[in-house]
Amino acid sequence: MDIDLTFEQLVRDHQDMVFRTLLRLTGSREHVDDLAQDVFLRLYRALPSFRGEALITTYLYRITVNVAQDEWKRRRRDDRPLVSLSDEGSSWEDRLQHPSRNAEQQIEEHEFQQTVEEQLQLLSQIERSVLVLYHQEERTYEQISVALGLPIGTVRTHLHRGRKKLREALQQRQTNERRALCETNRSTASARL
Amino acid sequence: MRDEPFNRQRSTVTDIDQLTRLDQRLIHALERAPEPQVPVDFAARVARLLPATRPIAVTATHYGYYAMVVSMVLLLAALLLLAPHAADRSVFGLTLQWLLCAQFIGLVVWLSSRRRAGLST
Q1: Secondary structure class of A105 (helix, strand, coil)
Q2: What is the ipTM of this complex?
Q3: Which residues 77-96 of chain B have a CB within 8 Å of chain A?
Q4: Less packed terminus of chain A by CB within 10 Å, N or C?
């Protein structure tokens, strides 16, 4: 049985996922529209060699990761500074905050999220892609392995290595902040004396 | 001084606690997906950019079905080839023939049920 889908419907069904993944992979809202457009145009060109409906999401993830990697290469060539997701206009973290939390907790949570986003952008492309596909997109090892064309063992290694790097960076940052706070307190105390 | 091992143990527990909490916060932060702002006319805009002549169809393949049909033909051929030798009534020959026969019937039943299910949907 042939299943005919209009391409517009296909775009509508998957556009949220593509935008979401691109946002996290590139770390910026800049040009996301153009990049998403590029993803779907590449998908369209690749459709004749596409086999079966079940793999379309995996196919799209692969194209999305490739487009994000191309964008990273382009940025490196242009030597443009990264714009953080949270620095721009309406940050998505603001909209996700829980109403019952107090202001201090919200600020702390916001800062933590921002730090994670920053550190995520410092990882290698492959580690970032694996982390985003696993944690944000909730893909299995097998699906990530197919989408990125890597053995499952390598996917696991990148996932653990990426998480370890993030954890270490966050720990380092927390230690630095604590040290800075101690020094400030000490200097305040000595100024009082 | 006597409290030292206890303190050390307590600080290790606190460290582990902090690490676990940090891990949980990290996972939570990673799982939090950004909310994309997709332009309302995005899909239409992409559709307009496509070359007009190309037909777009996502076709389901039937490799499994064809493999089953080929297997049935092969089984039938094997059954027909073995039939003349069944006259000597050796245990091996009869067992093999019954086995092939059962496989053939199984495939026919499975294929016909699939076909009926496909027609009904």
Answers
A1: helix
A2: 0.73
A3: none
A4: C
